[in-house]
Design goal:
- The structure is a single chain.
- The termini are far apart.
- Helices cover about 70% and strands about 0% of the residues.
- The protein is mainly alpha-helical and about 60 residues long.
- The protein has 4 helices and no strands.
- It has a single domain, classed as Tetratricopeptide repeat domain (Serine Threonine Protein Phosphatase 5, Tetratricopeptide repeat).
- The radius of gyration is 11 Å and the shape is globular.
Amino acid sequence: GAILLATGRYDAAVQAYQRATQLNPSGTEAWYGQGTALLKLDREPEAALAFAQASSTENPVTTQ
């Protein structure tokens, strides 16, 4: 998903991140990546849900 997102293939990135979140529902990075890709596609309501899921997982993403 990250490579697809970085290269502007947002639809494919959403699909990859959806698969990742199915395999690991607590995968914060996958939810965050999915939200980011959805924002790039102007799908704000869906992005908000993905970001909410990212923030509710047990392993939050940390930034330094």
